[in-house]
Amino acid sequence: MERSFEAVLVEQCATTLAGVKPASLFRYQGADRRQSREAAARWAKELAPYGITVRILKVCPQTGACLIYLYRAGWLRSILSEPSNRAFLARQGYQTDQDCPGLLRQLSRRLCLEREFPHEIGVFLGYPLEDVVGFIRNQGQGFTCCGCWKAYGDPDAAARHFAQLNKCTRVYLRLFHEGTPIFRLAVAA
After folding, report:
1. Residue 93: left if φ>0, alpha if ψ -120 to 50, beta else—which one?
2. Angle at 136 (CA atoms; ends 130, 138), nearest 5 degrees
3. SS3 (DSSP) at 25
4. pLDDT tens digits for 114-146?
5. 137: how many CB neighbours lie within 10 A of its CB?
6. What SS3 state is found at 115?
7. Per-residue model confidence as pLDDT tens digits over 57-108
């Protein structure tokens, strides 16, 4: 059974809708090649008044499946302007003299053109830099806690944070399945 764009959006992006995480990412393949793009465009308009941006980062040329990125632009700008994140992205080959949309275009190109998955995407999703660097350096091994991502710092703090994110997702899914519309789940910036 095909799940609706809206159901996947809430399942994968509840924490961003709620304003407890700056960004989320999900893959969606509609019934035909246009459906995913049209749904993303519709929700981009619906969520813009709440300070939430919806952007397609990649489209699979074979299947038409889209990699959809939902983010809070102000929060993401703040993350991407942090000197440590900028230095890290520069080491990964990004032209960091660009603004947030320019950095997102570079990320999109990497997703589309590079053979290896660009794990620096964790910065764009609001993961702690320590965890992004730890994942890359350790090739996904040796983590201290695993939840929504692999953490490499304090395992207790990571576990508490993951529990908060999981609770948010459970509550939002329950509300959505009870009939609460997405625009009522979106917390304004």
Report:
1. left
2. 90
3. strand
4. 888 999 999 999 999 999 999 999 999 999 999
5. 10
6. coil
7. 999 888 889 999 999 999 999 999 999 999 999 999 999 999 999 999 999 9
Q: Quick one: tokens of 76?
A: 């993401």
The residue type found at 38 is: E
Q: What gap in Å lies between CA 149 and CA 122, rounded to an integer? A: 9
Q: Residue 129 corresponds to which tokens in the numbers above?
A: 């830099």
Side chain identity at residue 65, one-letter code:
A
Secondary structure (3-state) at 179? coil
The reported pTM is 0.94
In single-letter form, the type of residue at position 42 comes to R
Grouping H, G, I as helix, E, B as strand and the rest as coil, residue 135 is: helix
CB 162 within 8 A of CB 148: yes
H or E element: which one contains 136?
A: helix 129-138
Please, which residues bridge with residue 58 across strands?
Answer: 67
Residues 6 or more apart from 5 whose CB is under 8 A from it? 28, 30, 35, 36, 39, 40, 43
Do residues 104 and 96 lie in contact, with contact meaning Cβ atoms separated by under 8 Å? Answer: no
